[in-house]
Amino acid sequence: MDIPPTVVPKFKRVLLKVSGEILMGNRNLGIDPDLLERMSRQIKQVHDLGVEIGVVVGGGNIFRGLPAAKGGMERASADYMGMLATVINALALQDCLEKMGVFTRVMTALHMEQVAEPFIRRRAIRHMEKGRVIILAAGTGNPYFTTDTAAALRAIELEADVLLKGTKVDGVYEFDPHLEPKAKKFDNLTYLEVLSKELKVMDATAVSLCMDNRLPILVFNLLDDENLEKVILGEKIGTLVRG
Fold this sequence. Notes:
Blueprint: E1 13-18, H1 20-24, H2 33-48, E2 52-57, H3 65-70, H4 75-99, E3 104-108, E4 117-118, H5 121-129, E5 133-137, H6 147-157, E6 162-167, E7 172-173, E8 185-186, E9 188-189, H7 191-197, H8 204-212, E10 217-221, H9 227-232, E11 239-241
Parallel strand pairs: 1-2, 1-6, 2-5, 3-4, 3-5, 6-10, 9-11
Antiparallel strand pairs: 7-8, 10-11
């Protein structure tokens, strides 16, 4: 997508939430290298526009804490294992981006200095101001919280203009569009509508955090290779959630 030099991005700083399931692609487990490269190119395109960007990655393509806990594993241990899975994805994304010439920093909520920096808010902001993409892993560092909540928390801490949730569908629907082809798609929603209708945007804690801090959430299809750039340039795609 060729961008005229006069075009100005709508957002200066964004936080992108990427689920582990997206990184899995059509595989049953692990990371699809082709999909990882496609997603990295989207991030690079946005970065090249001068946008400051942070990425929160999930770990569901490797390990999911809640299903493991339901299967009998102690919940806190299962959640910590899920956090470690997000670090694997973060390192893979870092490797792919840096091969494209994008400077990055992986920052984790759990201390593991051999592979990543600890998340320190002021340091993270400084990295973005210097033009580095920050990749945030290990959730909040606490069990019982999802990576959706981690993304909302980090977006607020980093004073992002918007929380972007990249998914496999083109917005928020009243029902799963894969199961109900006639399900209604919403172009705009309020936080209270998301909570009252129990729509599958993000978990209730994440939505409540965004509502309390007036942080917009934009849900869109990340599998379309031009969508992230379109969002940054202000095209109306996906579903916007705000007050």
